[in-house]
Write a structure and sequence with these properties.
This protein is an alpha/beta fold. It has two domains: 3-162, 3-Layer(aba) Sandwich (Leucine Aminopeptidase, subunit E, domain 1); 187-499, Zn peptidases (Aminopeptidase). Helix content is 34%, strand content 21%. It has an eight-stranded mixed β-sheet, with helices on both faces. Strands 1, 2, 3, 4, 5, 6 and 7 form a seven-stranded mixed β-sheet that branches. A three-stranded mixed β-sheet has the order 12-13-17. The two termini are 33 Å apart. 56% of the residues are buried. The protein binds ligand BES, zinc ion and manganese (II) ion. Residues 271, 273, 348, 350 line the site of manganese (II) ion (MN).
């Protein structure tokens, strides 16, 4: 695992495999960002000119390596782009996260790096810490021994150099960036773990072990308890699989907490579609369908590591959606935990697992419920692959989540829950069908979940189908595969609630 520490030593003075400096796009071409001064001196003040000659412009995602000159103790100088230079020297947090991420990603396979990026305040220190940890991330669990020796390993040591001070605020910023980075990487590992290794029981076992490490209360309902407890939605989705479902509760409490948040995560460890089987080409990435549960789990652990003054309960609805002789058929009617009946018209719509977990979470009367789910391809059609949709029965909660996500660096957008779309889920057979109109499918799914929210409880739904799993080329701190989407937003919300901001 990568570690990040803070040092007041000069950028040129630390011995590392590489020293990272940042460049930006100024009005008259490439400029060096603060932090690069001592390295530039070793280039006789010509670093910007050298980089420009090599074709650098300071744009985001640019990374150029140079052999270090005499006067720089590291072997290599790596220049990364921050994008447009701000008028003051105060760089946007997301630009810093991305540049640090690109740097750490470019340095896979090396051991030690000195990051000489602009560390103007605590926010900048946190951003660089987080970006470095996320960029350094590599999924190694499935490599053979021989491959591991050659596969590009994550950087083991990142030192933030040139910090003006290593005071309490600076150390707290490194700590918060580290917790967020490690917990997002925890989610990424879970998402990237293949579905033959990660299934409801093995996921629940991991939560139990990690929960214990952090002094968190973990309760697991197995298939017998779920059947007995009337969790028709979770059982109905999981019943076609040889690997039975679980509902996991993981709770963090603070003795001085005034509010309680419930986070509910969709944890389909593999989504084949069930009897409504997905066609080839649509199921290769469906190990990612537990990303919501992964994010919720990590967010609860993060809240505990940060000691937030709020109670946070995570509910992970874990099931594997498979076709078999025992699988739920399109046409079957399920009796849900809330008592409502659902006619399953398409087994590929697994909002049912969330419906039961949302109803169960509501019994404890939390101040708000936020569910996180890779729920619909329709949300990706609407918002693209990088932005998640936010739906809510409370405009205030929806706006707060949108603001929190934006501040945290997660693209999101508020989406409506139009009442007229409820009609499409009417069926002559049961209380509601699990399918509705095709148009606005992401909103239909949101309306389905809303049916299971207890009266008087604020609830929001984050559809992270797009950003949870990245299939295109890596950029900034985002690798291919699991991204850790929604972790920062959930932790940010918990912080806002804890501090009343
Ligand atoms: N897990 C999928 C949604 C998904 C699609 C996530 C692509 C990530 C990437 C979900 O369970 C699903 O299959 N949804 C269906 C719903 C439909 C049957 C109403 C969909 O989006 O097609
Ligand atoms: Zn699914
Ligand atoms: Mn599905």
């Amino acid at each position: 695992m990568t570690s990040v520490s803070l040092s007041t030593s000069a950028a040129n003075a630390l011995r590392a495999d590489a020293v990272v400096v940042a460049v930006a796009k100024g009005p008259k071409g490439l400029v060096l960002a603060p932090g690069a001064e001592t390295v530039d001196e070793a280039f006789d003040g010509k670093l910007a000119a050298v980089l420009t000659t090599l074709g650098a412009t300071g744009a985001q995602d640019e990374a150029i390596k140079l052999p270090a000159p005499a006067g720089v103790k590291s072997a290599v100088v790596l220049a990364v782009g921050l994008g447009d230079a701000p008028e003051s020297d105060s760089y946007d947090a997301e630009a810093l996260r991305r540049a640090a991420g690109t740097a750490a990603r470019t340095l896979h396979g090396t051991k030690k790096a000195a990051f000489a990026l602009p560390l103007t305040d605590a926010a900048a220190i946190e951003a660089v810490t987080l970006g470095a940890l996320l960029g350094a991330y590599v999924f190694t669990a499935c490599r053979s021994e021989a491959e591991l020796a050659t596969a590009k390993a994550p950087l083991s040591e990142v030192t933030l150099v040139g910090a003006k001070r290593a005071d309490k605020a600076a150390k707290a910023a490194v700590e918060r960036g580290t917790v967020l980075g490690e917990e997002m990487n925890r989610t990424r590992d879970l998402v990237n773990t293949p579905p033959n290794d990660l299934f409801p029981k093995s996921f629940a076992d991991i939560v139990t072990t990690v929960g214990k490490e952090h002094g968190l209360k973990v309760e697991v309902l197995d298939e017998k308890a779920l059947t007995k407890g009337g969790y028709g939605g979770i059982v109905g989705v999981g019943i076609g699989s040889a690997r039975p479902p679980r509902l996991v509760k993981i709770a963090y409490t603070h003795p001085k907490a005034k509010q309680t948040l419930a986070f509910v995560g969709k944890g389909i460890t593999y989504d084949s579609g069930g009897i409504s089987l997905k066609p080839a080409g649509h199921n290769e990435t469906m190990k990612c369908d537990m990303a919501g549960a992964g994010a919720v789990f990590a967010a609860v652990v993060a809240a505990s590591r940060l000691g937030l003054q709020v109670n946070v309960t995570g509910w992970l609805a874990l099931a594997e959606n498979m076709p078999s002789g025992s699988a739920t058929r399109p046409g079957d009617v399920l009796r849900m935990y809330s008592g409502k009946t659902v006619e399953v018209l398409n087994t590929d719509a697994e909002g049912r697992v969330l419906a039961d977990a949302i109803a169960r979470a509501g019994e404890e009367k939390p101040d708000a419920i936020v569910d996180v789910a890779t729920l619909t391809g329709a949300m990706m059609m609407a918002l693209g692959a990088r932005t998640f949709g936010i739906m809510s029965n409370s405009d205030a909660l929806r706006d707060q989540l949108h603001a929190t996500a934006t501040e945290a660096g997660e693209p999101s957008w508020p989406m409506p829950l139009p009442a007229d779309l409820r009609k499409g889920m009417e069926t002559p057979t049961a209380d509601i069908a699990n399918m509705g109109e095709r148009m606005g499918g992401g909103l239909v799914a949101g309306l389905f979940l809303k049916e299971f929210v207890a009266e008087g409880i604020d609830w929001a739904h984050l559809d992270i189908a797009g950003p949870a799993y990245h299939e295109a080329a890596p950029y900034g701190y985002i690798p291919k595969g699991g991204t850790g989407s929604a972790v920062r937003t959930l932790v940010g919300l918990a912080e806002r609630v804890a501090t009343g901001s």
